Amino acid sequence: MERGDHRRRYRRSVIRAALLSSLLSLTTARLLPSQDDYANPILAGISNQGQNEGQPYVTAGDRAYLIGTQDGNFPDMGQHTPGEMGGLWLPPIKLIDGFQARIAEVGTDKEILLSQSAEMVAYPYGNLFRYGRVLEDMDVDRFQFSPDHQQGLIVQYRFKNTSDRTRRLRFHPWNNLEWSPR
């Protein structure tokens, strides 16, 4: 192949590449829907709308999981070992049978057991229990998740004071230790 032929082919290749890139830059690409459009409704959670209170749920990580009912309780359930499915498991050990909390305003005798949530919202990464208005102008939520690569569960209670005054609360969490290998 002569040197002139090689140069001509090279020039044609450069010209073709320039024309192709010009043509591509003039076309309008149809945008694809983003992954957020698909994921946003899922990440926003799925509410039980206050229904199915007695149905089980799980808050799971890869090293620990919590099983309870959608009203936020931990009744005896299960058939493999009767009544022993619910609670916090760090396989093969059942660590606790369940937990509850009580709330009261300091200076009053009225103590409320946070035992019956009004709604549960299931997320891919955890669960939210909305107890609603449990004291005058006081809403309570419980959020829980089990982080991967950790043997445990994170439980967060949120208290929302909707009044215009400062409040002092007593909060008493309680759990029923189990310590039973299965």
Describe this structure in words.
It is a single chain. The radius of gyration is 29 Å and the shape is elongated. Strand 9 and strand 10 form a beta hairpin. The protein has one domain (47-181). 18% of the residues lie in helices and 42% in strands. It is an alpha+beta fold.
The SSE order reads: HHEEEEEEEEEEE
Rg from C-alpha positions? 29 Å
Strand percentage, roughly? 35-45%
Distance between the termini: 80 Å
Largest sheet: 6 strands, antiparallel
User: What's the number of extended β-strand segments?
Assistant: 11
What's the SSE blueprint?
Layout: H1 3-26, H2 35-43, E1 46-47, E2 56-60, E3 65-69, E4 87-90, E5 93-105, E6 111-113, E7 119-123, E8 126-135, E9 138-145, E10 154-161, E11 169-181
Short note summarizing the structure:
By secondary structure, the protein is α+β, with helices and mostly antiparallel strands.
What structural keywords apply?
182 residues, alpha+beta, 6-stranded antiparallel sheet, 5-stranded antiparallel sheet, 2 helices
